[in-house]
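Our preliminary data section would be incomplete without showing what the modeling component actually yields. Below, a chain of 277 amino acids is followed by its predicted structure, encoded as tokens that our downstream tools consume directly.
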Amino acid sequence: MVPVVINADDFGLTEGVCKGIVKAIQTGSVTATTAMACVPGAVERLTRWAPEITGRIGAHLQLTSGVPVLSPERVPSLVPDGERFPSNRKAVRAPNTEEILAEWRAQMELLLRAGIEPTHIDSHHHIHRLPSALPAFCEIAKQYGLPARSVDTEMTRALLEAGVFCLGKTVTGWYGGDLSLASLVQLLKEGARECPQPQALELMCHPGLADDDLAGVSRYTSERENELAVLCDRALQKELAVAGFSLATMASAAGISRPMRALKRMGSRYVGFPGLG
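Predicted structure:
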């Protein structure tokens, strides 16, 4: 059986998204989620909802769609308008790696203060694809001792060479379009075939309830409810088993018996990438 982590992005985005993700974990097949700390009201929502799914929450690091944890004066390259992150990855211009690292450390510490001990990391809009962001992403993963999301073969190589654990493949195509049980299983089959050998997979998903606030912060609205319905369908786990997949948490897929703590605090000493030492 190939272990599969079904990971829900955007925990904290709105009340309805939080409620939907918690439901998907408690009564459905979602096994993990990642929390975003930079949207209005996120910390208060996370503080209330996180205890419902302890040990299943990672960090959804942001450089888009929100405001930085640090003051804009400390991260000027990340806030072109002097206040907010850009709305999408294409609008991000020349972010400074040291500023990204400082901001992402601040986001991690904010989650810890909110009572969340992250089990893994990924990023909003996969902003860690940017050449200036990937070194900071790797350093955050190493500093806090956490598995990280890879989105392609080249990134997997870069993460592993930097000493960062990642799963064999992240399946990102279950988004919009045909949000069905059959399409989810088929995408996982295709992902498993693309791995050089049987390895754990991650499926990215975005379940939630489309509350009144969602349309103001995301273009992905009613689709979240469609995803939620499939992920809570009792037939899903049976279909996954028939196809040769077993559900796993990020910790179990990584061969870890418990959520990782921040084992290594490296202070200002960063290694592995030029310019961070």
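Residues 37 and 43 are 6 Å apart (CA to CA). The chain has a mean pLDDT of 90. Preliminary results of this kind motivate Aim 1 of the renewal.
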